[in-house]
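Throughout our pipeline, every protein is held as a single compact record rather than as scattered files. This encoding replaces a full spatial description with a residue-level series of whole-number codes. The remainder of this section carries one protein's record, kept here as part of the documentation.
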Amino acid sequence: MTYSISRTLDTCGLNCPEPVMMLHKVVRDMAAGDIVEVIATDPSTSRDIPKFCNFLDHDLLTQEERDNRFYYHIRKKQLDGL
């Protein structure tokens, strides 16, 4: 899968609910179809970020853990009709 990341959100060192709250603010300011990479150290993000995407209908493109960090690529939902 090839795509370009529009923004990176580093939430390392922050605990629930801060990473999701920061993600919500960043996504709100993005254009439809833009992709944000989230980097986190809080293990609860592996539950919270997929729920966030599902609830708000954003696409969770990737979710992986490397070197004690969690990485997520999220595409902001497209507008209806696009």
Observations:
- The CA atoms of residues 35 and 75 lie 4 Å apart.
- The mean pLDDT is 95.
- Helices lie at 18-28, 45-56.
- Residues 7-75 form a domain with the Translation Initiation Factor IF3 fold (CATH 3.30.110.40).
